[in-house]
């Protein structure tokens, strides 16, 4: 263990950082696109079906194939990896945002509108707060996927912890494989936990918790 | 131009959904300031549609709706809605906002300063008898009835003159519902608000409304005060909606004394002599005579007892006439008069009009008819039909008992 860290410690830190960095950018872009898109889609239910179907289809493309497909478009390196992971992150966020917004009780939407909220006020003051737990669940799911799949990004030269694992595979060195895998898992768990904390903070208080306890 | 103007006016309003489904048709309705209008009908009658067109939650496909004389179609719907209170069946409090935030939602949209909002919320929550510290609680911490109280005052928070309520108490238990009905009625009267209230519950409508608008199949069937509705249901549909039982029971509630009085009581003028009085009593078989002057004004009465005592000493009716007399107004509700008649143990009560002219009498026997009808069902179809049996004999029955 300590000898492994002595030999690969610096590399491990650098690769972990790369992994996190690629994932974070992909996820960030995913949120920036999918959340507003999901909200917008609730206003156009017919388009929504088509868009979600397309997003689902993209999800079924094997991850390695998707990464490979990026090469003719963006070459190799971090950019194609980020684009591919971004595409993967879209569906869970998009679908959860859409469902979350759709599930906001019609009573509340009616009430908000009837009291004289503009559509934007209704979205920001009522619908998004109410849909927040579902939207956050989609983001957490996407985050875990993206961090795990970012490992494959090393295949197209994006770096990350995948480098360690692929090296291990090529050189038949199980300690490299394990040494690369464990940080990926830890990273995913850690990010999921952090996002969970964020979800709690973002989810509006309703007073129900106190009553329940 | 404001005061005399009706607050809401429907001018031949139609609402046809895509696909040709007619929701409402040819709606012409005027809602006066201070009215409590109940829209009542079965599901699909168009009552909710009619109400929701006022704040443009639904757009009419034809006709015009005026709010304070202005065509609402020319107003910004968001601004319009902020002027109109809105209470819905499922309460619709925002679960993620405190009661304070919920109550002051519209004032906040209208950018009232914080201090004014706080003062408003505090005065409103006191009005519905909830403690002020509840303002910091969340809706989930309240019972359904308490939540709807907040729902009601939320609709008043921006000083809206017109409040729309869409079956607001439908989901509440009967006791809670009743207390909320009383609350709304008293708030409406106290604050002089105009309320448009959708319900399918006739009891609720009769209790709250000053005007009841009965709807069926997208049309207004009848627009009347509760008393008019009970007395003159426009057709069988309205009668069914009210329910035969309620119609019969209501008869006592809305029947006036004038409707059941006997119109030809035994009377005498003050100037007549006592022998004439005796002769009249014998002829009409009564033991008392009402005394009226030549113009028909009620003056008093004479009975057979004083007549025998005074027979030798006096000569004219005026001398022995007793002027202490219990009588009721022709327009008084029978319901209110029955109790008094029974409690005082009177055999009959004279009925006078507003000028104190004698119009007739109500006897215990006519009360028996009313009770009979209530128990056995009305045998006559029009609720206001007067006494099924004649007549002027009835005072005689009183006399008979006395002897």
Describe this structure in words.
The complex is a heterodimer of chains A (about 210) and B (about 400). With about 210 residues, chain A is mostly helical. Chain A is about 85% helix and about 0% strand. Chain B has about 400 residues and is an alpha/beta fold. Chain B has helices at about 45-50, 75-80, 100-105, 105-110, 115-125, 145-155, 175-190, 200-210, 225-230, 235-240, 245-255, 255-260, 275-285, 305-310, 315-320, 335-345, 365-375, 395-400; strands at about 10-15, 20-30, 35-40, 60-65, 70, 85, 160-165, 195-200, 210-215, 220-225, 265-270, 290, 300-305, 330, 350, 360-365. In chain B, the strands form four sheets. A six-stranded mixed β-sheet of chain B has the order 6-7-8-3-9-10. In chain B, strand 9 (about 210-215) and strand 10 form a beta hairpin. The chains are: A mainly alpha (about 210), B alpha/beta (about 400). The interface between A and B is medium-sized, with 23 and 29 residues.
Find the structural class of chain A using helix and strand composition: mainly alpha
**Portion in helices of chain A:** over 70%
Largest sheet strand order of chain B = 6-7-8-3-9-10
Which chain pair shows the most residues in contact? Answer: A-B, 23 and 29 residues
Radius of gyration of chain B: 28 Å
Low-confidence sequence ranges of chain B: 378-403
**Mean pLDDT of chain B, nearest integer?**
83
């Amino acid at each position: 263990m300590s000898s492994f860290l002595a030999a690969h410690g610096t590399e491990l830190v650098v690769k972990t950082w790369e992994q996190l960095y690629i994932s974070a950018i992909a996820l960030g872009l995913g949120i920036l696109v999918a959340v507003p898109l999901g909200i917008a889609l609730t206003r156009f239910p017919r388009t929504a079906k088509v868009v979600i179907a397309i997003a689902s289809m993209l999800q079924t493309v094997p991850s390695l194939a998707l990464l490979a497909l990026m090469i003719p478009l963006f070459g190799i390196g971090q950019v194609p990896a980020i684009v591919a992971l971004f595409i993967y992150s879209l569906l869970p966020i998009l679908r959860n945002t859409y469902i979350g917004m759709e599930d906001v009780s019609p009573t509340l939407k009616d009430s908000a509108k009837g009291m004289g909220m503009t559509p934007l006020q209704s979205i920001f003051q009522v619908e998004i707060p109410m849909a927040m737990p579902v939207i956050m669940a989609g983001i957490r799911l996407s985050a875990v996927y993206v961090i795990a799949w970012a490992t494959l990004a090393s295949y197209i030269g994006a770096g990350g912890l995948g480098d360690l694992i692929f090296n291990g595979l090529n050189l038949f060195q199980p300690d490299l494989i394990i040494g690369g895998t464990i940080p990926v898992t830890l990273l995913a768990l850690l990010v999921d936990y952090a996002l969970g904390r964020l979800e709690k903070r973002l989810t509006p208080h309703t007073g129900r918790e106190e009553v329940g306890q | 131009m404001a005061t005399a103007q009706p607050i809401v006016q429907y001018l031949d309003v139609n609402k046809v959904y895509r696909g040709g489904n007619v929701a409402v048709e040819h709606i012409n309705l005027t809602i006066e300031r201070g009215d409590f209008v109940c829209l009542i009908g079965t599901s699909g009658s168009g009552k909710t549609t009619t109400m929701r067109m006022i704040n443009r939650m639904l757009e009419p496909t034809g006709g015009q709706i005026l709010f304070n004389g202005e065509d609402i179609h020319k107003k910004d719907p968001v601004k319009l809605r902020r002027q109109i209170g809105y209470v819905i069946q499922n309460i619709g409090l925002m679960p993620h906002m405190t009661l304070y935030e919920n109550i002051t939602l519209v004032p906040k949209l209208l950018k009232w300063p914080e201090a004014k909002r706080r003062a408003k919320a505090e005065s409103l929550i006191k009005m519905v008898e909830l403690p002020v510290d509840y303002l910091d609680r969340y809706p989930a911490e309240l019972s359904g009835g308490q939540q709807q109280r907040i729902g009601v005052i939320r609709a008043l928070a921006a000083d809206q003159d017109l409040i729309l309520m869409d079956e607001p108490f439908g989901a509440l238990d009967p006791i809670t519902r009743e207390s909320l009905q009383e609350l709304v009625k008293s708030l409406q009267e106290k604050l002089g608000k105009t309320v448009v209230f959708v319900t399918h519950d006739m009891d609720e409508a009769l209790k709250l409304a000053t005007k009841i608008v009965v709807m069926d199949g997208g049309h207004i069937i009848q627009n009347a005060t509760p008393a008019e509705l009970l007395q003159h249901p426009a057709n069988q549909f309205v009668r069914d909606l009210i329910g035969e039982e309620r119609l019969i029971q209501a008869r006592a509630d809305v029947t006036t004394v004038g409707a059941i009085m006997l119109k030809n009581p035994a009377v005498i003028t003050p100037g007549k002599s006592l022998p004439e009085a005796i002769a009249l009593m014998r002829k009409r078989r009564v033991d008392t005579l009402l005394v009226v002057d030549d113009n028909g004004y009620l003056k008093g009465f004479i009975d057979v007892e004083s007549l025998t005592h005074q027979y030798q000493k006096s000569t004219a009716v005026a001398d022995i006439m007793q002027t202490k007399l219990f009588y009721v107004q022709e327009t008084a509700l029978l319901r209110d008069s029955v109790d008094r008649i029974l409690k005082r143990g009177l055999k009959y009560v004279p009925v006078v009009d507003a000028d104190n002219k004698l119009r007739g009498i109500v006897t215990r026997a006519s009360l028996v008819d009313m009770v009979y009808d209530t128990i056995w069902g009305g045998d006559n179809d029009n609720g206001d039909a007067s006494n099924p049996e004649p007549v002027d004999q009835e005072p005689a029955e009183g006399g008979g008992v006395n002897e």
